[in-house]
Amino acid sequence: MNQQIIENIYQQILNEKNQGSLATYIPELANISPDKFGVAFLELNQPIIGVGDYQEKFSIQSIVKVLSLCLAYRHLQSDIWQRVNVEPSGTSFNSLVQLEADKGIPRNPFINAGAIVVCDILLSILDNPLEDFLAFIREISHNPQINYSSKVAQSEKSVGYRNFALCYYIKSFGNIKNDPIEVLDFYFHICSIEMTCQELAYAFSFLANDGITLHDGCQILTKSQTKRTNAIMQTCGFYDESGEFSFRVGLPGKSGVGGGIVAVMPNHYSIAVWSPCLNSKGNSYRGMKFLEEFTTQTKISVF
Ligand code: DON
Asked: Model pTM?
């Protein structure tokens, strides 16, 4: 893959007007410069290619939901699907509406409701949830420099009324086993993890590599679990814009309200883009645009 293609698309998008707005509902995220823009591309077993602010850390937010799912899936195997479903929701990431009809089983692990249930599962499995989860992220990233931002976690907790509502509501159906306060504290912390595009592209590379890490050949997920995780990213990674992302980009991916997007092309590459201005669905405007141009110009996508 040519660095020039990535730089050209980056420049092209930089020259166009940015659109959307910051995720101001989390007060700390309102302080980020809206002009940040970085891309990191990792072709399996090739040196990483980076452009712009690709080495600057940002709040990964919902991107972490893929990694929390992986850790829970690893422990519970297919039993996990009794607690959370695998259907696209067609509703916004923080919606409450389907939970009543679905009797507290969230549609998928990437909407907030589903990610909160996955956090509850991890609280039951892990001895020291915050330490053990961070150790897992550092292990797959081959990088000890990854941390929570207690400032961002605290900021979200201070206004996270919808997530509190979701967690207590799910608990009323019996699908939260632990104390909701502890589940949410864990949820806000894992969302607050800060990583660069470079670190994210590397952390997700095992999902492009049949579940195996590049640095030490460790099997994080089985081949089948990896396929299924990618399938959920393809169908649910962008909430009620998952169809649009599939249509325009054609890769399994996951967004976060910090403005990051990670996507993988199985057996080929992982890619991370960061631009904090979000469209009305909570997905990075420039991130989607970059990936659309990237898969269009390189003609490398799953479809
Ligand atoms: O729970 C929240 O609202 C945030 N911690 C995460 C939401 C998010 O990143 C949605 N993604 N686009």
From this structure: 0.98
Of all protein residues, the one whose alpha carbon is nearest to atom 3 of ligand 1 is 94
Percent of the chain predicted with pLDDT > 90: 99
Question: How far is ligand 1, taken at its centre, from the CA of residue 111, in Å?
Answer: 8
CA distances (Å), origin 9, targets 44, 88, 197, 286: 21, 30, 16, 11
pLDDT of residue 275: 98
- What span, in angstroms and rounded, lies between the C-alpha atoms of 192 and 204? 17
198-254 pLDDT per residue, tens: 999 999 999 999 999 999 999 999 999 999 999 999 999 999 999 999 999 999 999
CA–CA separation, 191 and 67 (whole Å): 11
Which residues have C-beta atoms less than 6 Å from ligand 1?
61-62, 93-94, 112, 156, 163, 191, 255-257, 282-283
Residues 6+ apart with CB under 8 A from 180: 164, 167, 168, 171
pLDDT, tens digit, 9 for 90 and up, residues 34-93: 999 999 999 998 999 999 999 999 999 999 999 999 999 999 999 999 999 999 999 999
Residue with tokens 């996990």: 80
CA distance 248 to 50: 23
What the block records as the tokens of 7 is 């730089």
- Centre of ligand 1 from the C-alpha of residue 92, in Å: 10
CA of 81 to the centre of ligand 1 (A): 22
- Closest C-alpha among 222, 224, 198, 271 to residue 41: 271
Distance CA 261, CA 201 (A): 10
Our mutation pick for probing the ligand 1 site, out of 21, 25, 59, 61, counting the most ligand atoms within 8 A of Cβ, is 61
